[in-house]
Amino acid sequence: MDEFFAGLVPVLAATLRVATPLILCAMGGLFSERAGIFDIGLEGKMLSAAFVAAAMAAVTGSAWLALAAAIGISVLLGLLHGLACITYRGNQIVSGVAINILASGLTIVFGMAWFRRGGQTPSLPPEARFMPLQWPGADMVRDLPVIGPVYAELIGGHNLLVYVALLLVPLAHWVLGSTRFGLRLRAVGEVPLAVDTAGISVAWLRYRAVIICGLLAGIAGAYLSIAQNAAFSRDMSAGQGFIALAAMIFGKWRPLPAFGACLMFGLLDAVAIRLQGVRLGSFGEVPVQAIQVLPYLLTVILLAGFVGRAVAPKAGGIPYVKEH
Amino acid sequence: MKAPRQPLPAWIDVGLIPLANVMLAFLVAGLIVLAVGVNPLDAVHVMLIGAFGYPEAIGYTLYYATNFIFTGLAVALAFHAGLFNIGGEGQAYIGGLGVGLVVLALDGLLPGIFLIPLAILGAAGFGAVWALIPAWLQAYRGSHIVITTIMFNFIAAALMVYLMVNVLIAPGVMSPESREFAASAHLPLLHMVLRSAGFAMGESPLNLSLLLALACCVLVWVFLWHTRWGYELRAMGQNPGAASYAGINGRRMILLAMGLSGALAGMMAVNELIGVQHRLILNFTAGYGFTGIAVALMGRSHPFGVVLASLLFGVLQQGGAELAFEFPTITREMVVVIQGLVILFSGALAYMTRPWFESLFVLLRRPSAAAAAGTERA
Questions:
Q1: Which of A91, B36, B91, B191 could form a disulfide with B201 if both were Cys (CB 3.0 to 4.6 A apart)?
Q2: Position B271 in a domain
Q3: What are the pLDDT digits (tens) for B106-156?
C-alpha cells in the first residue's frame, strides 16, 4: 500500500504541474469562447508571454515584473484579436492563426537579436523565478506514511502559479455562472442581439472577454518559462495551447468539466513519460505517441458526438453587426 | 462576409485594397527589421539578390514556390466551399506517407514511368483520406472542421513519429529516416532536363513537380469556374442555404471540397520526397502547410493569385536564408513573421483599410460627379 502511494504521489504531483498551463489557458479560452469569440490563438499568446517573461526576468531579475510583462504582451495580442474580430469583423480563425504564426516567428527573431543564444534566453537564477513553496511543517510530516508525501509533495511544494491556476477554476465557475457579468457574457455568446436590445454593448463585453483570456494565457506563458523552467526555449509551448483548447471543448465549454479534462490530459502526459520503454503485460510496449495523441483523438471523438455532445456557443465565430 | 457599404470599382476592391493590405504587412515587417538593428532597405536588397541574384538562386526560389502552390491551392479550394482547412500540414505529412509506402514497396519492381505516377497518386490519395475524415465528421456528425483539422495535424505528427521510429526506419540507421528510394523513383531535376535539352541552368532542387503544381492550378481553375461541380461547390460556399434549396447536396460538396483540398496538400510531398529528399524523413512539411493559408489569403483564393503569392513566398523563403547569413542579428524566422503579418493584414484585418478607401474614393469622385451634373444641366 505504502509503495503504491509512494509511486502515486509523484505522478499526481507531476500531473498538477503539467496541467497548470492547460488550466490557465482553458479558463482563458472559456471566457473568450463563451462570449462568442473563437480563440485558436491561445498557443501564440502563451508562447509570446513565455518569451517576454523570460526576457524580462533575465534583464530585471524580478519574477513579478516578468509576470506583469507576460500578461501585458498576451493582453495586447488579445486586443489585436479583438480589433480584428470585434471591431473589423474579420475571421476569428484567420486572426488566431495569424497570432500563432507571428508568435512563433517573433519570439525567435527577437530572442536571437537580444540574446544571441539560438533563440534561447539566459537561464534564470532562483530569485528571478517562481520557485516551489515549502508548506509549513512539510519537513516534519514528510516521513509519515501516506499523509506525509501527500502534504509535502502533492498539496505543498508547488510554485505560486499552480495555486493561482487551481483557485481560478472555482472563480471562473462563479463568475460565469453566478454573476451579472458572467450571465451577460454567456448571453453575448448565444444571442448577442438580445444583449444589444437590452442596451448593453456587445463589443465592450466581448473586448472584456478577450482581455481576460489574454490575462490568463499570459500567466500560463510566464509559468512555462519562469516557473516550470528556468529559461525560454524556442517553440516551448509545444502545442499546449491546442491541448488546452481541446480540454475546453472536452469540458463542453464549462469551467469544472474543462478543469477535469485538463487534469486528465495532464495525467496522460505524466504517465506517458513514465511509461517510456515499459512493457505492460501482454500488450507489450505501449508507444508513447499513442498516449500523447489521446487528448486530440478523444476531442475528435467527443466533437463528433460519439460520446455525449459538445455544443459550442451559438454565436461563436460570427461577427456581430449592430442594426441601425 | 458583410456586404460593402459603398460600392467601389473592381480595380480598387480586388486590386488596390489587397495590395495595400500586403504593403501594410511589409511595412510592419520593415519596422521589426529596423527594431533588430538592420536597415530594411538593405534587407530587401540582400533578399532579392539571394532570391534572383545568381543562377542557382532562381531554382531554389521556384522550388520553394512549388511547395507553396500546392498548399496554397489546397487552402484556396476549401475557402471556395466556405471551409477553412487548417489541416494542410497534416495532410501533406500523410501524403508523404503515401509516397513513401508506394515507393518503398514498388521501387524494385516498376520502372520510373509507372512508379512516379503511382507515387503521385499515393500522395494525393493519402492526403485526401486525411482530409476526408474531418470532412465526413463535419458533414455527417456536425463537428467543427477547424478544430478537427487542427487535431488531425497533431495526430498525423504522432502517427508519423511512431511509424518512422518503429516501422519504416532503415536498418542500421540511428536517425528516423527510411532507406533511400531507388533511382527510378527520383523525379528529374529541372536543371538536368534543361541541360539535356541544351539549356544551361544553375543546380538547384527544382524538379518537375513545378509543372505538376502549375497543372494543378489550371485544373483547379477549370474545375471551379467551368464545371458543374465547381459551380455547386462555390454556390455552397457563398450561401449554403440557397445552395441546398437549389438542390445542391451540401454534404457531398463538403466531402468533394475537402477531398480535393487534401489531395492538393498531399502532393506537396511529391516535391519534397521524390523530388529532393529521396527518402521518407520526419518533419519534411516544415510549416509549408500553414504558409498555404497566407498564400491563399494573399492570392485571394484564385489559382493565378496563388501562383503569384507562392512566388513571393518563394522569394522570401530563399532570400530569408540569405538574410540570416548576411546579418548576424536576423534569423530566417523573419520569414515566418512576414507570413504571420500577411495573414493578419490580408486576412484578419482585411476590412480595416476598406473604409479608408471608401472615403478617399468619395472624396476624389465628388468634383467629377459635380462636373457631370453640370454638363447635364447645360
A1: B191
A2: yes
A3: 998 889 899 999 999 999 999 999 999 999 999 998 888 999 999 999 999
Helices B250-266 & B88-106 angle (0-180, nearest 10): 60
Per-residue pLDDT, A179? 96
Task: Specify the CATH number for A2-306; select among 3.30.1490, 3.80.10, 1.10.3470, 1.20.1630.
Answer: 1.10.3470
User: The C-alpha cell of A76 is what?
Assistant: 495586447
Yes or no, beta carbons of A300 and B350 under 8 Å apart: no
Find cell 504587412 and name the residue.
B25
Pick from B150, B149, B120, B156: nearest CA to B134: B149
pLDDT tens, residue by residue, A35-60: 999 999 999 999 999 999 999 999 99
The candidate with the shortest Cα–Cα distance to A179, out of A214, A215, A212, is: A212
Nearest to A91 among B150, B330, B348 (CB): B348
Instruction: Tell me, yes or no, whether B13 lies in a domain.
Output: no
Which of A90, A113, A304 minimises the CB distance to B349?
Answer: A90
Between B2, B32, B347, which is nearest A94 by CB? B347
Give A161 to chain B, closest Cα distance, Å: 28
CB distance A101–B147 less than 8 Å? no
Whether B4 has its CB under 8 Å from any CB of chain A: the answer is: no
Positions in chain A short of pLDDT 50: none
Q: Domain map of chain A by residue range?
A: 2-306
pLDDT in tens, B254-291: 999 999 999 999 999 999 999 999 999 999 998 999 99
Contact A271, A291 (CB under 8 A): yes
What single-letter DSSP state applies at residue B189?
B
On the question of pLDDT at B89 being above 60, the answer is yes
Say what the pLDDT of residue B3 is.
Answer: 44
**Cell, residue A83:** 480589433
Shortest Cα–Cα distance, B27 to chain A (Å): 15
B112-141 and A294-303 helices cross at what angle (nearest 10)?
50
The answer to whether B237 and B84 are in contact (CB under 8 A) is: no
Compute φ and ψ for A127, nearest 5 degrees: -65, -25
Q: Identify the three-state secondary structure at position B336.
A: helix
